[in-house]
Amino acid sequence: MIEFINVTKEYSDTSALSNVSFHIDNGEFVFIVGHSGAGKTTLTKLLLREEKATEGKILVDGIDVTALPASRVPHYRRKLGMVFQDFRLFGDKTAYENIACIMRAVGTPGKEIRRRVPALLRTVSMEDKANHFPRELSGGEQQRVALARAIANNPDIIIADEPTGNIDPAMSLDIMNMLMKINHLLKKTVIVVTHDLDLVEYFGHRVIRLGEGKINSDVNLPSAAEAEGGISNE
């Protein structure tokens, strides 16, 4: 469960978010949309606790993120899996190692890493590229690896920040289908921050639209993808 309660974030004399309130249930799939400067990036930074709200509360599974001491932030972030527009893979590590190193960082035993990493790569259809370095992969393939890395430590929430921004339209559909499957099959809460309204309209689901730091609308859209067979739970 994620709840923003009257959240305001101000930078000197600029209000990035103003009195924003919304609730996301466990297992929901939600798009956050809006033009540049609407407040999308600020909202994400507040959820990650990279920034602190000026006013209001942000609750994640009952934890008041705004009141977390700095020493507890790293542990809190284990609840979150991030997928970035620019992939943020380690260039000197293979696809396998990019996932494994994230698991080692939280103390996962080597035997468990050797068992789970191949399964994660299969989940994103990248098992045949396990020993490839990022420079040897296309943008879409790198994003698949980044997605596998995001779910490697079994987070409760996946946040995808413009996940299709650096890949071609065909691969964008592929990545979005994978995010949908993670939501359906693994029952993860998925938040996709995007400006790609065509994708939003195609995949539907709940859409929270920001404008000038406020929520302009919060609606559920029908999914053209499901009607066309674009999403599968298998």
List the helices and strands and how they pair.
Elements: E1 2-11, E2 14-24, E3 29-33, H1 40-48, E4 55-60, E5 63-64, H2 73-76, E6 80-84, H3 95-105, H4 110-123, H5 139-150, E7 157-161, H6 169-186, E8 189-194, H7 197-203, E9 205-211, E10 214-221, H8 224-227
Parallel strand pairs: 3-8, 3-9, 6-7, 7-8
Antiparallel strand pairs: 1-2, 1-4, 4-5, 9-10
Helix pairs in contact: 3-4, 3-5, 4-5, 5-6
Explain how this protein is built.
The chain has 234 residues and is α/β, with parallel strands linked by helices. The chain has one domain: P-loop containing nucleotide triphosphate hydrolases (Rossmann fold), CATH 3.40.50.300. It contains 8 helices and 10 strands. Helix 3 (95-105) packs across helix 4 and helix 4 crosses helix 5 (139-150).
CATH architecture grouping = 3-Layer(aba) Sandwich
Strand content: 25-35%
Low-confidence stretches: none
Mean pLDDT: 92
CATH topology: Rossmann fold
Number of domains: 1
What's a quick, concise take on this entry?
The chain is of the alpha/beta class and 234 residues long.
Which characteristics define this entry?
alpha/beta, Rossmann fold, 234 residues, 8 helices, 4-stranded antiparallel β-sheet, 28% strand
